[in-house]
């Protein structure tokens, strides 16, 4: 993280708490974590710190199924796109080279500067998928089921992972 003049102690505390989270968290969850860690901080301050981090590009933001914002500290090597499970909220980074190329081509074609994009992918992870266990058991005994991603033809857009 770059440090800036207006970086407050509270914003640092929020950043540290975010750094300890593997997955996307809501402002409320972060607030609870900070309180549990003995930080005297208000929910409003957490919201403000997150807004600042978002404006500075310090966090990636996705929406949960009710439209609430979820935050995760952005990796040092730039922004990422994630596939998030709508059931349990777990997320994993996904390859987004095609999106990045498309976005920069649009910027070049239109002459727009400072073009930004937000791409959110959500689905149901292997653990939350009904029948996930049956899928695992279908492999030969003692054999690790192969990890694969595909789209079921009868449910367009649904990404399925048998195992990981
Ligand atoms: Zn899940
Ligand atoms: Zn991108």
Textual characterization of the structure:
The protein contains five helices and eight strands; from the N terminus they run αβααββββαβαββ. The two termini are 31 Å apart. The longest helix is centred in the middle third of the chain and has 14 residues, at 97-110. The strands form three sheets. It has a three-stranded antiparallel β-sheet. A hairpin with a 5-residue loop joins strand 4 and strand 5. The chain has a single domain, classed as Arc Repressor Mutant, subunit A (Orthogonal Bundle). The radius of gyration is 19 Å and the shape is flat. Helix 1 (9-19) packs across helix 2 (27-36) and helix 1 (9-19) crosses helix 3. Mean pLDDT is 79; it is low at 1-6 and 135-164. It has 164 residues and is of the alpha+beta class. It has helices at residues 9-19, 27-36, 43-55, 97-110, 132-137, and strands spanning 25-26, 59-63, 69-73, 81-85, 91-94, 121-123, 149-151, 159-161. The structure holds zinc ion (2 copies). The site of one zinc ion has 6 residues, from helix 4.
| CATH architecture group name | Orthogonal Bundle
Give the strand tally.
Answer: 8
Helix content bin: 25-40%
What form results from the Cα inertia axes? flat
In which order are the strands of the major sheet placed? 1-3-2
User: How many domains in all?
Assistant: 1
CATH class: Mainly Alpha
Oligomer: single chain
Can you summarize the main beta sheet? 3 strands, antiparallel
Q: Within the CATH hierarchy, at the fold level, what is the topology? A: Arc Repressor Mutant, subunit A
Report strand %: 15-25%
Bound molecules: zinc ion
Overall pLDDT metric: 79
């Amino acid at each position: 993280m770059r440090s800036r003049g207006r970086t407050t102690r509270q914003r640092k505390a929020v950043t540290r708490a975010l750094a300890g989270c593997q997955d996307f968290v809501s402002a409320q969850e972060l607030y609870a974590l900070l309180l549990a860690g003995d930080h005297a901080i208000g929910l409003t301050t957490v919201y403000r710190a997150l807004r600042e981090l978002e404006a500075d590009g310090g966090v990636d933001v996705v929406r949960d199924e009710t439209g609430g914002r979820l935050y995760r500290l952005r990796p040092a090597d730039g922004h990422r796109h994630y596939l998030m499970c709508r059931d349990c909220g777990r997320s994993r980074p996904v390859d987004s080279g095609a999106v990045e190329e498309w976005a920069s081509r649009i910027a070049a074609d239109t002459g727009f500067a400072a073009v930004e994009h937000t791409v959110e992918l959500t689905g149901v992870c292997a653990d939350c998928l009904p029948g996930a266990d049956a899928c695992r058991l279908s492999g030969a005994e003692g054999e690790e089921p192969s990890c694969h991603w595909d789209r079921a033809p009868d449910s367009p857009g649904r990404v399925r992972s048998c195992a990981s």
